[in-house]
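Hello again,

I reread your note about wanting to compare the complex against the isolated chains. To keep things tidy I'm splitting this into two emails, and this first one only covers the full assembly. Below are the input lines as submitted, including protein chains and any nucleic acid or small-molecule components. They are followed by the predicted structure of everything together. The single-chain runs will come separately.
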Amino acid sequence: MKIENLPEYLLLKNGILIDLDKKEKREVDILIKEGKIEKISKGIEKKDKFIILDIKDCYIFPGLIDLHTHLRTPGREDEETIETGTKAAIAGGFTKICCLPNTEPPLDNESLITYLIAENKKYNYCDLYPIACATKRREGKEICDYYLLKKAGAVAISDDGAAISSSQVLRLVLEYSKTFDLPYFSHCEDKELAQGVINESFISYQLGLRGIPDISETIFAFRDVLIANYVKSKIHLCHISSKKTIQILRFLKENNYQFTCETAPHYFTLTEKDIKNYDTNYKVNPPLKKEEDKEEIKKALREGLIDAIASDHAPHLLAEKEQDFENAPFGIIGLETCFLLSYEELVLKGNLTIFELLEKFITNPAKILGIEINKIKENNEAEIVIFSPKEKYIYSEDKVVSKSKNTPFLNKEFSGRIKAVINKNKIFYF
Amino acid sequence: MKHLLSINDLSEKDIYKIFDYASQFEEVLKRPIPVVPSLRGKTILTLFYEPSTRTQTSFTLAGKRLSCDVINFSFSTSSILKGESLLDTVKNILKMKVDGIIVRHSVAGVPHFLAHHLEKENIFVINAGDGINEHPTQALLDAYTIYKKFKDFNNLKILIIGDIKHSRVAHSDILIFKKLGCKVFVSCPYSFLPVEFEKMDVVYLPDFREKLSDFDCVIALRVQKERHNFSYLSSIREYHLLYGIKKEDLNKMKKNALLMHPGPVNWEVELSYEVLKDERCVILDQVFNGVAIRMAIIFLLFQEKL
Ligand SMILES: [Zn+2]
Ligand SMILES: [Zn+2]
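Full-complex prediction:
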């Protein structure tokens, strides 16, 4: 990965602009002057000062938004830092990311939110939107100071990793957060039921690993949406992975319940069958499920029932992952492969058009967070992804930008490659 | 070097080869000096992260009868640092220049983990029980005990009673009996059945007593409360009433049937103490056969004949 300051004039030649409003592809040249889009049109004439970047056959679209990144800061900077995490985000085409509050200590007070935002400005690779804790110490008991958290820069609240088990506390969380228009990001998991390490099925029996029943997700998704709608608060469901959950969500949507939800690429590209030889790079929470769950997720993405695709980027040290399956932590890194996997599985296999895919990565996440998209328009700051859909790309170990390398997709050959990202007056090449 | 991590690692041919060697080693065990020099100079290590005097002793004896040096390591569960110490274990094993390791651990997949990290070395790994996953040598000795009696597995009907979901013995037993052509039945409360148990291709009997006269072999499993976070049982009393084999049950069993238990028995739970006197009860034969079977496995792994 190479990072350079933008030249005074940069001319992108022959790119294919993906216009999200008109839903059309257009061949254009884009002239960027001092980080700002000066002109978009066909056949912009070259002048002496211009640095030319020929991007024939490449797609151009605005930076992607990730709703679910674990930056591990503060507390676990050995696994990821703001510097390495935001770089990994850029490498994956994301220019705006949300970081979740399950850190050590957790993000349950405004000073930590202030710290994260200030720290991110030092590197200034991408925009960082912290999500604060819903309850103090993520214990599911006392609610946090949402006003102060929001003022410091938090865009949502969540106790990710731990679901609030008390329905009464959840009601309070949702009512209080409504006052400040902060969406609640729900990690749907009935912990009492979910005492295992992989999906409970014949495969968990064959491997002798304790199983997590798929309904543990469904039950809490159902409950959380009901409570949120009862008090008319904004709820977003994280990393949906099971067919049963989708069936229930479909029912709720048909009955006009309000909610948004996301899934992560591993839930529509992998299944529990991939967990061979106790490889802990397949240990994720919620766990990988069956073929039918995978298909249902793709169907829900096509239908628009699932609004967004998030990375659920969860870096862990090799020393932690390289141990027995029970004791290894849940989670895989995902920022760098999130879009590539989605493009390959969803667009190339005919599930979504490129426009629909970018809705899941840009338009919908922005709506969920209530933030503006920086469109590719004249006079806007350049925040552009240059993606080559025809190139092959092997994601080998030396290419990993994240500080951790825990991914089952190492050495996978992708169809499509992120060539460069332009953001904050910088250009990042890969 | 090949390992023995799962019954799935063995072909039917391998299993009969193990039986064949086991019967030869049985002869050795009956000699006044029950030792052969086959593996002189070799060293094996038993690594028991979960205490089991019986299994560890059986492996130790098996190794020593083959003139192998056997070093035993036991860890009390509380004293081990979980996780990364496993890789340290691998590094230590390499420095200690042992030829084979026999491992028991409370977590499924640990023997696979060690085998994976010792892949390039000339060291075999035997799974002596990993969590709720498998216990292949127990299954082999169970099958061998049945083989000695019937000499043919085809159409034998075998009933396994107990916690099918959390028993590594049941898991390995079902795999081996099905591989050898038996019909396998299980009986237990529903809370002891794995989900999607239909895929196991076994017959579930809520009440085995109705069919007790059908079985050639009945295996009662040890109730292991320690493996559960909380009780799957209502009470020991009710379990014994419903799933314990009592003297009157023996009357319903075939005259030439076998009654087995992997041991140690919780008397008056899985079995009434009286059934021990019945000649169909072969629990102690299983213990003897266990040494012969383990000698065969260790020997064959060293000879690379599996
Ligand atoms: Zn979560
Ligand atoms: Zn998460």
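For quick reference: Chain A touches chain B at residues 195, 200-202, 204-205, 207-211, 213, 277-278, 319-320, 322-328 (CB under 8 Å).

B.
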